[in-house]
# Entry
Amino acid sequence: MVTRVATVAFEGIEARAVDVQVQVAAGVHATGSTTERRSKNLRRLLLFWASLAINEAERGRPVGRVFKALMEGAHATITREDMVDAVEEYTKALRNLRDFSVVATTNELTRQNIIESLSPILQELGREGLWPDIGPLKGLRGSRVSRGNNIPALGELIVGLPGSAAVSSARDGGAEIIELSRKRLIRLRQLFEDALLKEEAAFDRQVKLTKDNRVTLGEIREAVRWLPTDYDRERVLFELPYPVRKCFPLENEDLRLSSLLRYIKAEHGGHFRLQDLPYGLQRVVATCGGTARVMSYLEGGSRALMSAYMLVSIDSLMNIQPCDDLPADPFVGRAKHGRIQLRTISSIKNRAGYKPVDGNFLEVEAESDEKSVAETPSEGQLPIHVEGAKISGAKAIEIWQKLSRPQRDRAKNAKYKDAEYLWIIRNGHDTDDVRRYEASSWKHWWNEFLDEHADDPVIGGLPIQRRMIRTTGLQLQSVHHGGDSEVVAMIANHSRASVTERYYTNRNYLRRLLDNKMREFLKLFEARLAGDRDERAAQLSLPLSEFKELRQTAVATGLGFDCDNPLSGYQPGTKDKICTRLDACSSCPLLRFVPSRESIRNLILFMRSLESSEEEFVSRNVSRWIRVWMPAMALCMAIIQLLKDGAKKRMVIDAENDVASGIASGKLILFRPW
# Structure
């Protein structure tokens, strides 16, 4: 009864709703799969309302009135109050983990995702006049819908426990969690990188093998006619018919595979279903590794797609939906400085009001004499922000574009709109049908991947999900940047740092790490203020050796600069307290430079950074440049020249050479003034 009532409504309500979604999505470059997912959750809502509306007692209540108005097309009669109450009935059922009227699971993330997916569609259709716009929905705990704060980082997971249990068991680990997250993310990336390069090697092998002309295509066609049904069984080789032995020799894998691939490309358009081949040829496919393996020579399959996707996800830290919706050619920018290159991709984040979001990949070109680089399939493109990486996320996209070109061409010829998107794959039941990947397919591929690596010493047995990648990466970035949420917010494409803090970096163990860094800084600062005298060590209750080491570290940390008397009150507003006017240091007479190899090197790097940014900065904000950065650059230049004119000349020249080679190799990154 419920289904019949809901179906009647769908003929009018859902048809219009989906049509509006398609129109809205088309205007902002949203995708069919995104619209489909949202429609599924809209259907859930309508079914829920229908199940209540058929109860006579409910017909006079808000749910009954809203559903009746929608069925009769009287959208204008729906009040905002009724709409709020009707939707609240639905979300209340989802918040109650013992209520299975909407979905048969107690998983909080699943229920949260249903609300999250429904929220934007209700707002879109409200703006289109289907019903009143009631604004964003409330999540499971009554807060604004968000997923990040519910998703654990990889370091929080425990082997054999589901994600939620792992979080509660491991959340207090501190630095150990961060180190586990780093190791697990790197290992995960290595596995996907190796898998993608293996798929690329298979595709490249096909290109080479299909150029083999030892036998003609006519001879191959003739040999297929002579293939016996027991082709691959143990036998004396000369018992096979001569055409078969010539084109599909059991003892020569390259020639056998070459003939098979040439035949499939000529007779089946470069793709096939096993059941469509003659049985004898099916046996040849079996000797070449099976259908999936043979197809991997011809075009990218599920393993190649998933591997490239995950490399992009790990390197860019994009949300799942924008990554899903990347266009076929997602690159929108490229900036290069020396051997360092920044490449940018762009997509649309639907949940954020269809806001454009970027993903960045940092790469460095390899030197010609680096043997380890020359041995990799992607010579000259090494990312510098991931340990031990062979290719960057940008290179992964290029590899996938190459592997997916055959099926993309089929999709274009068939005028499939999905050809416009990056992550497309053939249908296993109809290889002519090329579409964007399905969520259900991804789940199967992912579980298969985890099972395959169940015994891995780093990630084996962990309940890893791809949505954990962004949380893990942003937390690692937070630690790397000293807890600077503004920087992490830029990486996350968030409009405010508070969003990043609330949903991604708001973890107790991250706070403790930041507290430790602050204590370490204060310890160094205290040692620097104490002065050079050895008796200061006893006053600070420190061994003399530790005190001297702290002072040396403090000098290097501050580019070698020191204040003769931070309690002098020289700068306005600093009387009777420690001076914190760092903006005035460069022109303050109390500033002192302590030369060492490290401090001179840091000073030169700082000056090179200012020099490289000067022209651009002046064009944007000349007053701030004159007020803040020009005095700092002048001071650097003066100190370096004085050192060159004195006994430190050789040390300065060596430091300049170190900085120049470090920048060229990508080991050093220029600072950008703000």
Observations:
- The CA atoms of residues 586 and 632 lie 5 Å apart.
- The radius of gyration is 32 Å.
- Residues 1-33, 142-148, 163-173, 368-384 have pLDDT under 50 and may be disordered.
- The chain is about 55% helix and 5% strand.
